[in-house]
Write a structure and sequence with these properties.
Elements lengths: L9 E4 L11 E5 L2 E6 L6 H18 L7 H7 L6 E2 L2 H16 L9 H7 L11 H10 L5 E3 L3 E4 L12 H15 L4 E6 L2 E6 L7 E5 L11 E5 L2 E7 L4 E4 L2 E4 L14 E8 L2 H14 L1 H15 L4 E6 L4 E4 L6 E3 L7 E4 L1
Parallel strand pairs: 16-18
Antiparallel strand pairs: 1-9, 2-3, 3-7, 4-6, 5-6, 7-8, 8-11, 9-10, 10-17, 11-14, 12-13, 14-15, 15-16
The structure holds adenosine-5'-diphosphate and magnesium ion.
The site of magnesium ion has 6 residues, from α7.
């Protein structure tokens, strides 16, 4: 799991009245900068518990820590099933369901591709076609066997990588802790995986900014006003390298073995379940606009969830789900129109 601190794909505007008892806490977890702000309910005890939980999740789910559950499973690929805990089984199960529904655009078995390209590591490179073909043989979610208490990767060399889903899982876990502590409102930002939790004191909606993919460090492109929800963005503009003027980023299309080039440069998914938003933002980024409409319909039917989306495309067009009409606008006057899709 190679999460990178620069992955702040969205800005947050915080308008809640804040009596400022204790400062929000920012700490690195899962290789990403995480901030939790529980406003007047924020206490040292609460933040300690949250960041301990995040550290625990990283220890289990990291694809790079040699002792993690995922590394243990990967090390036995093609050899034997590995007993693991319920939490890992549940996240993997959800990842596999998303893989089936997205025809493999999202896959928990992306490890060999992630490792081969090494984006943002000291060995990042454009692999040869032969290397990509070899890796693709192993990116095979149909060969991930789950049983009641164990996981078996049926081909030697297969590798689970849950980098596209774990921050979402973690955000949901943070919300459970907030609930247990009776926190009234909070903003959870796990490197761009945002959860706006509870209600603001004045009853108004939360405002979340969606970054401008062409200029991620300047003002956000879009402003989204929502009630309690998770907002997760996958983008091609934070973790990448360039070679001969071409950008190679960290979300791979398992159909080609190359960084996805679907036309979407920023895919935001909004739903009450952050794990769903995270998996779907990665999947829709890979699939592109048209196929994503179908995927989201299928997903809603299967899981009965509320799901909204905002896709920013290569040449600047913006597509959003119709339910966001009146809640989504360009931050600066923009001649472009948002296309709301029923
Ligand atoms: P981020 O976590 O970087 O904000 P994503 O949620 O889209 O963005 O996840 C990207 C990560 O997911 C990659 O760094 C990699 O670990 C993993 N990954 C890359 N391609 C895929 C894919 N097609 N399906 C599932 N996971 C992927
Ligand atoms: Mg994701």
């Amino acid at each position: 799991m190679k999460f990178v601190s620069r992955l702040c794909l969205v800005f947050i505007f915080l308008f809640a009245s804040c009596s400022g008892k204790i400062e929000p806490r920012t700490q690195t977890a899962m290789d990403t900068v995480c901030t939790v702000n529980a406003f007047e309910d924020g206490t040292k005890k609460l933040y300690d518990e949250i960041f301990e939980r995040l550290a625990q999740i990283e220890k289990k789910f990291s694809a790079t820590l040699p002792d993690s559950e995922i590394s243990r499973i990967n090390s036995m690929a093609g050899i034997s099933a590995v007993k693991t805990n319920e939490e890992v089984l549940n996240v993997l199960d959800f990842a596999l369901k998303t893989a089936w529904i997205s025809d493999g655009a999202f896959t928990p078995a992306a490890g060999p591709l992630v490792d081969l390209w090494g984006i943002n590591t000291d060995h990042q490179k454009i692999p040869s076609q032969a290397q990509i073909n070899n890796a693709l043989e192993l990116v095979d979610f149909g060969c991930v066997g789950l049983s009641r208490d164990s996981v078996f990767l049926r081909k030697a060399g297969m590798k689970i990588n849950l980098g596209g889903i774990v921050k979402g899982f973690a955000a949901d876990e943070v919300c459970k802790i907030l609930k247990m502590h009776g926190v009234k409102k909070a903003v959870v930002d796990l490197g761009g995986n945002i959860y706006v939790y509870g209600k603001k004191s004045d009853g108004s909606k939360w405002t979340v900014g969606i970054k401008n993919p062409e200029s991620p460090s300047s003002a956000p492109l879009l402003r989204l006003c929502i009630n309690e929800n998770s907002v997760v963005t996958s983008g091609s503009y934070e973790r990448y390298f360039e070679s001969n003027g071409k950008r190679y980023h960290h979300i791979f299309d398992p159909a080609t073995g190359f960084p996805a080039d679907s036309g979407i440069v920023s895919a935001t998914v909004i739903s009450p379940s952050s794990i769903a938003s995270d998996a779907l933002s990665t999947a829709t980024f890979v699939l592109g606009v048209e196929k994503s409409f179908k995927l989201l319909d299928k997903f809603k039917k299967e899981f009965g969830s509320d799901i909204s989306f905002v896709f920013v495309c290569k040449y600047g067009s913006v597509f959003a789900s119709a339910d966001l009409k009146g809640s989504l606008e360009f931050v600066q006057d923009d001649s472009r129109k948002i296309v709301f899709v029923p």
